Structures are given as structure tokens and as C-alpha cells.
Amino acid sequence: MGKNLKEAMKMLEDSQRRTEEENGKKLLSGDIPGPLQGSGQDMVSILQLVQNLMHGDEDEEPQSTRIQNIGEQGHIALLGHSLGAYISTLDKEKLRKLTTRILSDTTLWLCRIFRYENGCAYFHEEEREGLAKICRLAIHSRYEDFVVDGFNVLYNKTPVIYLSAAARPGLGQYLCNQLGLPFPCLCRVPCNTMFGSQHQMDVAFLEKLIKDDIERGKLPLLLVANAGTAAVGHTDKIGRLKELCEQYGIWLHVKGVNLATLALGYVSSSVLAATKCDSMTLTPGPWLGLPAVPAVTLYKHDDPALTLVAGLTSNKPTDKLRALPLWLSLQYLGLDGIVERIKHACQLSQRLQESLKKVNHIKILVEDELSSPVVVFRFFQELPGSDPGLNAIPPPNMAPSAVSQERHSCDALNRWLGEQLKQLVPASGLTVVDLEVEGTCVRFSPLTTAAVLGTRGEDVDQLAACIQSKLPVLTCTLQLREEFKQEVTATAGLLYVDDPNWPGIGVVRYEHANDDKSSLKSDPEGEKIHAGLLKKLNELESDLTFKMGPEYKSMKSCIYIGMASDDIDVSELVETIAVTAREIEENSRLLENMTEVVRKGIQEAQVQLQKANEERLLEEGVLRQIPVVGSVLNWFSPVQASQKGRTFNLTAGSLESTEHTYVYKVQGSGVTPPQTPSGARTKQRLPGQKPFKRSLRGSDAVSETSSVSHIEDLEKMEHLSGGQDASEANSPERHPEAPTPPEAEQTGALQDRAQRLEDDRPQVEEPESLR
């Protein structure tokens, strides 16, 4: 028996253990996502999942934004990543020889193409990573005991890194985070303010900063110069900067898009001076249209141990395989293909410059018209009393507030112009930039976009034509802004909202009766009125666009009026907005009061019906209320009682008896309300003329065969209507006893006969009288 009990307990423990294992598997499988459950997925399902994630829903996303158009050279670059994974599986000796060959060939080709002799190369994915490694190399070169003492050496003599004020935002913070340095180690060098480009580093001020840092016991470590700033593509005076760095023992690093022109036959002297710098960062991927290609930092240094410590070189063969995609792509393109792509981008920028020179109200911010591969332009409106050649300088008698308002208006219009051009010519690769001095501008940088987007000369011509076509809209809108502000200010019930970021005619808000003017919080009643106003304005089918805002729901609602493409009658527009908003407010109040009016009318009707029932009981007597006796009595002597009820007239707001309805089989006519007077100006328009357009009368552009005839018809209609009104007003009143002419008697007889015919017909209920 004991033996059987032990076997039974063992069987229970085994079953319990199996149950726990199964439960554990269920719990584990429930925590893991679906694709990992079971024995795995097949290759077709995995690739289908990747395709769905890449393309997404084609109905929701445009075709152009899904994936970049990759050419054959792009496929070569992408193939390099797959080959790198296969090559990494070779044995160590073959892998070492192959990676060394790939790295040395790519370094030699890049140094020869971009005129940087006897240089080394570091390939990296992040563009700023190379500069961080260069800073680390400079620290190890200037601080010999840094490897032993670490940051104690830096504490005694703080290093200083000099950056231009025109450098890309966030570059200094990135360097400090990567190097573990405090922010006071950064020195921001201002740009020129008096002479030269306002986007170039001020060399004289830089020298003063270096001397001041040396007097404070600091160590000037590294200077970052620009060969094409991130905003406008201007190049610093690299030749003078190199002399200054050699004088004070500072490492000079150059970066920028203009370094691509080093591969061309003609190079400006300022860019050519970059070949003498200590290091430079190149981005051949965007220049040549190569996807997933690393950036390259070329540098000169004789100590391989320090470069290894700084991370610029590595003993791992897999790190050297980063150059494989670029190694394959450079061989595919060849020297002629590389030069042709860079030359084509520069020709596109020159072509746009020549086209924009012929366009009025467009200012070009180009440093060197012969060699600059970046074109930055903006729309401007000449200030009153200013010289067209000095349009950026406001007149001295102009108030600062007016200058600021003019600046904000032009910034909003330039932002709108850039967005419109990007939609009309997507192959141009335009970007909108905000500059500190010039304001909002549009940038065309084909070196970074043309190879990827496939920009051609026809696209540049189309871009210039689109700019020319948008200028009348911009100038007309800018001219109508002040007139719109004055009209809104002079109109009761409307408030002008100054929004400098809106590129349209202006912003207006309707102030209803219960509007709290001192509060800026959202108003539900105001939102309802503005929503109805927006709907009414859009139903007018005018050339103007209306939008309701702002984007922040905590603010009060407003009506945003878009760009004006033609001469707009601003007074009519403002008056239409005011009258329409006022009507919407009155209608909303009527609907709100309707419930209370109907409720009181129903209560009054119930009271009157109850009184009528009591009067009927007294009139009929008690005997008629007894069931059997009342029926016999009503049969012998029926009561001719009229059916009494009540109707509620919504127009008059009063109760009326239904006796007239049951007797004459028609409802009461009630009172016909007068038409609601409209405050809008009834402007007669020509056939096909849209709302808010100025009248064509007096215009030289009116056609004799079309518009003049319509105008004459309108004048005749006005003359006839005016004549009839005058005759009615001037006719003397007849005396009641005066004799009637025969024509009048005949007309009166006909009218009496018609009236008798009408009386025989049943009358139709008036629509304003509701039960």
C-alpha cells in the first residue's frame, strides 16, 4: 500500500510539473509579439512585411514622398553594404588584405579629386562625428600628458574651440557632449558687420579673441571655418584664417558644401585655400546622389599612435569596410562622371541667378556670382522714400515699429512663396531659411539636392517662371494689407488681429454682444459664429481663401483671409464680413429664444383650453354629462357647439383661435413679417464677375463689345427703377370725392371681378403662420 501511494504521488507531481511547463509556455508566448510565435516566418512573408512598412498606405501618402528615386549608381552604393556583410565572413588574413586595399584606394582617390595631397581619411556615418574625432586628436596633440593626467590638464589650461556665428545650430553643443567639455570652452566668433559679407567670420575680431584667451591663461585649440555656410553658402576668408592659425598654433578645420568645387577646373581662391588646412569634412553622398554613403574627413597628421587613440584609425577590419560603398560608387562614376555631376549643379545655380536678375522685387544674396553654387533670394517691397539699390536699409524718418511690421509682413510672404514654389516645382529642392539680418529667404542648393532629385535646366526655367507668376499676388496682397486694417478698424463689431506669421490680407475677429474683450480664452459662442461665417464666406465662390484659426484652441477664433490675386474691393469685403456675422448672431439668438417662447405659448394654450372646457360644461349643463341621459338628450336636442382650439403664431408670438379654421376650412392668414433689411451694399455685378471685385467702370481695359453693353444695360435698369420710384413719389393723392376717369373705372371693375373670383377660392395658408 505504501508503494502504491508513492507511485500515485509521483504521478501527481509529474502531471503537475507538465501543467506548469505548459502554462509557462503559454505565458511566454503571450508576451512575445505575433511574428515570433511558433516556428518562425518564411522569407516571402518577411519581405512582404518590409515592403508594407516601407511604402505604407499608397492612398494616404503621395507617391513622391514614399521613397527616393535611386539610379544605377545608387544601387551600386547599396550593394556595397551587402558585400561588406559577406566580406566580413572571410578569414582574417584575406579580410585584412582586402579591407586595407579598399581603404587605401578610396583615400587616395578622394585626396586626388579634391586636391588634398598626402592626407588620411576617416569614414563616418554622422557628418559631425569626424569633427569630434579631430577635436580629440587636437587635444592629444597639444596636451602631452592628457593620456596620463586626463582632465586635470585641461583644468589648468582650458582649451578653446572657435566657431563662427554662421555655423550650423547645435554644432558646439554636440562637440562639448562628445568630448566631455563644458560650454565655456566654446567661443562664438561674430561675422562681419561693416565690410565684407555679413555671413563671413570677422578675422580681426577673431584675432582679438585669441589674444584675450591667451592672456587669461587659456589654450586656443581649434578653429572651425566654413567653405559654404549652412544657410547661404558663403565662404570664410580661409587664407587669412590659415595664417592666423599658424601664428598661434591652432588647428584649422574646414567644412561646407563649396568644398565640392575643388573637383572642378576653376576654383575660387577662397575655396582653394582650404587645401592647405589641417582637416576638412566632405559629404560625397548628396553631391553625387549616392544613398547610404558615409561622410569623409580628410586630415594630415604624422603620429599614427595619436590618430589611433583619437579614434580616427582602427585595427578592426570591419571598421575599414565602411569605405566599401564609396569605393564601388567612385569606380562606377569615374572622374568624368564625378566632375560632370558637380559641374551640372553649379550650372543650375548660375542659370537661376541669371533668370532672377531680370525679375523685379527679388533680391539675391550671393557672395560670388561666378562660382557660388548656392542661390538665396527673397521677395521685397521697396519702402517709401528709399533708394531701390538700398532697399534693405529703411529711411531714417520711418518709425521702428513700421520697419518691424514691414519686415514681418515680408517674412510671411516669403515663407508662403517658398512653400508654393516647393509644391509647384518639387524637383528644385528648395528650402525656406530664416536669417538673422535678411529675414526669411528661399534657398536653392543644387549641390545637395540636384543629384538626388534629378534637377534639370528645364526645372530651373519653370522655377523662374513660377516666381514671376507669383509676384503680382505678393505685391497686391502687401498693398491691400494696410487698407484692410483701416477698414476693419473703422467698422463697428470687427476687431483687427495683428498676426505677423499670416501671409494673407489680414486677420479679423467679430466681437459679439457677450464677448469678453479683456480675456483671450476660447469663446464657444464666438466659435459658433465664426464657423457659420466661414461657411457663408466660402459659399460666395470668390477668388479669396478663408480659413478659421488660430491653431491654438485656447485662443479666440478668427477669420484668416488669404492672398489676393487681383484688385479686391476691401470695403465690400469688410462690410460683407460684418453684416454676415451680425445676421448669424441674430439668427442664433432667435433660435436660442425660440424654446422659451414655445414653452410659454404651450402653457398659455393649456390654460385657455382648460377655461374653454369649463365654459362648455356650464353651457351644456349637468344632464348632458351623464352617460346614458346625455346621449338621449343630445339625440333629441343636439348642441351646435363650435370646435375651439389654439394655434401659435411664431411670427407674431401670440396665440390665435382655431374657430376660423374649422368654420371656413382655412387657416388664419396671420401677419406677414417685413423682410429683414440687409446692411450689405447691393452691388450690381457684371455677368461672370466674382464677389469682392472692383467695378470695371472707368477702366481702360473694358471691351466695347462685351463689358460696355452690360454696363449700359445696368445703367438703363437703374434709370428705369429710379424713374418709377420718382413717379410714384410725385403723384398727387386723389380726393375721395373726386371723379374717377373712365379708364380707372374700367380697371376697378376688372379688379372687383378678380377679387370675387379669388374670394370663391379657398385661401392658402401663409408660410409665416405656423400652428
TrEMBL record:
Region annotated Disordered, chain positions: 1-36, 668-771
Cofactor: pyridoxal 5'-phosphate
Biased composition (Polar residues): 669-681
InterPro entries attached to this UniProt entry: GrpII_AminoAcid_Decarb, PDXDC1-like_2nd, PDXDC1-like_3rd, PyrdxlP-dep_de-COase, PyrdxlP-dep_Trfase, PyrdxlP-dep_Trfase_major
PDXDC1-like third domain sequence ranges: 484-589
An example Gene Ontology biological process: carboxylic acid metabolic process
GO molecular function: carboxy-lyase activity; pyridoxal phosphate binding
Residues in the signal sequence: none
Keyword entries, A-Z: Decarboxylase, Lyase, Pyridoxal phosphate
Ranges of Basic and acidic residues composition bias in the record: 1-25, 710-719, 753-771
PDXDC1/PDXD2 second domain: residues covered: 372-478
Organism domain of life: Eukaryota
Family from the record: Belongs to the group II decarboxylase family.
Protein name according to UniProt: Pyridoxal-dependent decarboxylase domain-containing protein 1
Organism: Balaenoptera musculus
